[in-house]
Amino acid sequence: MQFFLDVILPIPVERLFTYSITEEEAKFLKKGMRVAVPFGKAKIYTALAYSVHNNKPTAYEAKEIEAILDEAPVVTQQQLEHWQWISSYYMCTLGEVVRSGLPSGLLLESETLILPKQIENLEDTLLDDDEFLVVEALSNQSSLQIKDLIAILGKKTVLPVIQRLVAKDIVSLKEEIREKYSPKTSKYVKLNAAYEAEEKLEAVLTQLSRAPKQSKAILSYFQLFSETKKPIKESQLEKEGNVSKAVIRALVDKGIFDFYHVEEDRVSFGDKEKDIAAVTLNDLQQNALNTIIDTFNEHKISLLYGVTASGKTEVYLKLIATAIAKGQQVLYLLPEIALTTQLINRLKKYFGNKVAVYHSKYNSNERVEVWNNVLNQKDSAQVVIGARSALYLPFSNLGLLVIDEEHETSFKQFDPAPRYHARDAGIVLAQLHKADCLLGSATPSLESYFNAIKGKYGLAKIERRFGNVFMPTIELVDIKEATRKKRMNGHFSERLIKAMTEALEEKEQIILFQNRRGFAPIVECTTCGHAMQCPNCDVSLTYHQRRGQMRCHYCGYHVLQPKTCEACGNTTLDTKGFGTEQIEQELKAIFPSHNTARMDLDTTRGKHGYAKLIAAFENKEIDILVGTQMITKGLDFRNVGLVGIMNADTLLNFPDYRAHEKSFQLMVQVAGRAGRTHKRGNVLIQTYNPYHQILQQVSTYDYEKMFAEQVYEREQFNYPPAIRIVKITLKDRDYNKLNEAAEWFAASLRNSIRGQVLGPEYPAVARIRNEYLKNIIVKFPKKGSVHATKKSIKRIQQSFDAISRYRSVKVVYNVDHI
Ligand code: ADP
Ligand code: ZN
After folding, report:
1. What residues does the Helicase ATP-binding domain cover (predicted)?
2. What is the domain extent for residue 333?
3. Which ligand is nearest to the CA of 551?
């Protein structure tokens, strides 16, 4: 009988692929183990074993697998079930989910470069024949690819050889492509077993009487050991024992000391824990907690709607403590940018070494380590705090999922596929594990609040700030008049400058919000009206004054700022609109004696840029901080007395059916950074349109009214949460082909699915990186299977893909959140 294995390849193909395996392999292989398989021309992929069977594929000759990479599954059944849900719900392939779900350290590919690390003066006895051949090849060549190794070794099972060489630290794999996991180790020193007996040791010391440094090193070692009663690190003996590396080395050469290596958990923290039981919740928090626990019994999902600084985090901490006590795993999910050291430290304070962080800023080794710790249900990863990709971790005993700032749009992944929403995928994950799920926000998304008042989720509220601090006052400042009468100082109204002066006199800090980076979004010629455009995208270039550049915020294209108009040659260039850079410049002129700083994508690019700015602001090295929406994300500053929103109108006028909901959330969240601890804070919102309903609702914190009006509008115009929606984007570099293809796609949709098909239409930016875009929006009927409709759409795509003329056209789906 023949045996076959179906695998999931980490690439965008719809189907599983079948490989032939031996009977022995068939017995050994389990779903969720990794195998290396050949695919396409001389490519090797890491794939996931899915099922073993005896059915020979009919369409193609099954190839043999290259190697089995695991002893036990690295992906669990529940994970695969969840990943399958993601793939079908978000209309992508399972392979795309695997690619985004597995940390890159667990994916090894044929494009991987194998580089020499320590190949000189290796003892041949350390290497087996295959390893020797690889090392020899690497002494002549600076790098090798997997296909080179297949040729050199004359066989296909090369991955195990690579893995052995990596483990021995002889070669490394190039990180940008795929890096193999290697645990971080520490080097320790111990006395060779032969010298453990006391008389032997004395003999050695006498023998070393002419090498005083070495005998002193031995004595230092004993002294450290008797003090700490712990294994001694080489670095420790060096520093605390005051012994040089050379002396230690000499003793190892003489066989008196031995080196050994111990794996170290690289994502570990200090150990001074505080008892969470010692934190007393106030009545409002306690009530909310009780409600949540009650509703968990009924719904398993609950929404905590607590105003900014009401102490939601402390409520989460109590729930986390309960889950830990039950021995369950906990996942605390946050938008990437809100995942600050501030919050991590707050968790560490109570749960110390049980807290692991899973984060895209961490390198692949660190992520694999957390992965393995979760897989093996280690204490060190009992509580995982992470951004959306932490959803992919191999939990087997998940008891609680907290999704903080659940309204945040950055929970949605836009590129690449899977284009999933981490809150929604998280809810499904929790249900799969029968775990409790808590959504938290000071400005809940319409969807979640809608579900809560419909009784689908439990609902708990905290309506006042912790410590009875008042919510900040919000004042709307009409700048229409002032602008007309030319009474603005740059973009600052007299009212704002006065409030700022007062706050600074009180030694309070100030946050200014402007949701645009750069100096000005448009540079226009006042003679001919020409504005500089990006050559690759259909947008105008943004002026960045400090660098003297015009930059495209879509593709990164940039040129030096011209002195004259490209079109007419006149020097009458003028800027329109304004960004954070311009505000910062004006600030320096208005408040020259105060420290100002700017927080946006341009100033936080470096690895620690963001954290440094937050720390400097916390330490009061900065008086006034100007920023984009980065400054809104759940930060807990203690001394901010005033928040200024420079211009509310650009937010409100954004062409998106969610613009009003988002503006409300954004402004209330920015306002929430003011006056969090003692004194009531102030917020000033500059606008041309102070009677706008959303601004009125923001200024009175009237979430309920905003909610009611927005839900009503969504129902009138058929948008979520009233109905379901999918946006299909077609992309191509050929303008005519794209138009034709989009018409074809839309016509087919109209023919075969129920519900409304809108478009095709160009989006606001109709060309990005030289690709033209067109959107088709499908609004699903209120009744009927969402799943079936998605399947019909996919079927249309299959026919579409079969048309050779459209082969180059990319089709992208965004589900629910468009
Ligand atoms: P939220 O998450 O709702 O914005 P936080 O949890 O950040 O609010 O709480 C705001 C501030 O109040 C924090 O500095 C926090 O330490 C403090 N705080 C909240 N609850 C308590 C409590 N029960 N005991 C002591 N301090 C608390
Ligand atoms: Zn561009």
Report:
1. 293-462
2. 276-467
3. 2
